[in-house]
Write a sequence for this structure.
């Protein structure tokens, strides 16, 4: 009389390796897209900050009667004209760049230090 062979329930090594390979393939596809979307959202936030600072500089120049080519205002001068962040200061570049305010009337009035990068430049086209 033959005794029935009992098979232990579970997955074989080959099945586990196939699942791990599929998960690795999906991760290889998804991770670059997440990184690209993060860089893109930081760029858009920086450009929006540039737009707000430029509008604040324009409004300051208009209200104080500054002519074209006048010296740029200090950050303290434009704080009443801009929505401040949670710290009560002018918004900063989310990528760590710094904003430079140029003379009044020179396009673009505000630029980000990351605008020279070829990867994801932060440039607000002043219109």
């Amino acid at each position: 009389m033959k005794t029935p062979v009992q098979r232990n329930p579970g997955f074989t090594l080959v099945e586990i390796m196939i699942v791990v390979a599929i998960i690795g393939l999906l991760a290889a596809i998804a991770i670059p897209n997440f990184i690209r979307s993060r860089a893109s959202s930081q760029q858009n936030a920086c450009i929006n900050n540039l737009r707000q600072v430029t509008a604040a500089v324009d409004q300051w120049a208009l209200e104080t009667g500054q002519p074209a080519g006048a010296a740029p205002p200090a950050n303290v001068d434009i704080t009443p004209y801009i929505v401040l962040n949670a710290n009560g200061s002018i918004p900063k570049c989310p990528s760590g760049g710094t904003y430079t305010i140029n003379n009044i009337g020179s396009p673009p009035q505000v630029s980000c230090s990351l605008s020279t990068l070829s990867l994801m430049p932060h440039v607000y086209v002043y219109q």
Summary: The chain has one domain: 14-116. The longest strand covers residues 99-101.
